Structures are given as C-alpha cells and as structure tokens.
Amino acid sequence: MSLFRKKENGERKLPVHIAIIMDGNGRWAKKRTLPRTAGHVAGSENFKTIARYCNKIGIKYLTVYAFSTENWKRPQGEVDAIMNLLRDYLKDSVNFKSENIKLQFIGNLAALPEDIIALMENAENESKDATGLVVNMAVNYGGRDEIVAAVKEIVSSGETEITEELISEKLYTKGVPDPDLIIRPSGEYRLSNFLIWQCAYSEFWFSNVLWPDFKPKHLEEAIDAFNLRDRRMGGLSK
Question: pTM for the full model?
C-alpha cells in the first residue's frame, strides 16, 4: 500500500502543524540492556531526522514535547543527562542555518538553568529569519501550567472580557496555529498534559513504535491516516 495515499478527490493534504510526544526512549534503551540515557541520546538524534524530513516535505510547524513540568520527578542523573543533551543540541543548532529551520522554545523557560536559557535565546536569534519549518520545542512545558500562566496574565492586566481568542493570545503558542495532527509513538494513548488547550480539534495518531525507532515512513503513515479523517470541526460532513 502506498505511503502517499490520497483522498477520494485525488488530493493529498499535508497537516499545517504536526505535534509529537517523543515517548519511549527509556524503554528503547531497556530493550537493548542500555542505560536510559542512551535512549535519550538516540531519541535526540531521531528528533533531528524527523524535523529535517518535515521541512523537506513542506510541513509548516512541528511542535515536540522534549521535557515536561513533571519530568523533574525523574532520577537526578537522568534529568541532568537530558539537560546536557539539550545543551549539546543548542550549541550545535547554529550550524544548521542552511537548513532554513526556525527554532522556538515554549514552556516555563525561566525555571531552566541560566546557561540553557542563554543558549535558547541565541538559537532563536540565529534562526529567526528562516522561512522553512518552524520547530517549537516544548521544554519545562505543561498544558495546565500554560493555561494557569495565561489566566494569571489576563487577571493582572485587568481584562474583564474573557474570550477564547484572548486566552489563546496569552498561551506559549501564541501566533502558532493549533496542531492539525498529534502523534504519540510508544504504545501510550494519552496526551500527558501536552497542548491540552490547543488540541480541541486535533486529529490523533498512535503507534507502538518507540520514539528512537520512529522513521519518516511512520510519519507518512500518520499523514496518510490524517488524509482519511473527516474533519468537521463541529459541523456536518461535506
């Protein structure tokens, strides 16, 4: 069966915005009797592969769940390893300017180590003029935390007319369209506090493939499935 399945009218439509919960690194390592940190290294490398592929095929936005507000509960050694991987990626990201990928970071970034914040700011500045794929990396991110922060900002501003549009403008993802397709590999079937406001009309695609083994062919399978969905957005089928 072709990876590039089309709708009945013959048109294959790409999601504008794909979001991915990059899950399964630890289990990938365990299956190979490796330390969990090895799984995070493999997952980090795979993120680069998938981001480049999204840029190649014309996806406009890719949001990845890199580190949640709950991940601080993990063993300190694992947290430190993840932070060091993030440092390495950020230091190296300036070398990818020719790929025309714009980097943005979302989450409670102020709680991160100062050197990582500085590296994030530099990566964003170095890629700000890119016109290809926009990668939103969610770090120290939690959907509930995001909504609470948005409400606090609205209250502090004295705004009395609360609308969905106003809340959306105060979220970390302001200016970015809501995800059309949310992908979660690894065999789990939950959002885990990821984009819980933005996912109101997202399509979901789940896979048993662990994140380090998630290939462009799996992304294409998800896009094929997306093309077969009837997205009514609360209305009637056409």
Answer: 0.92
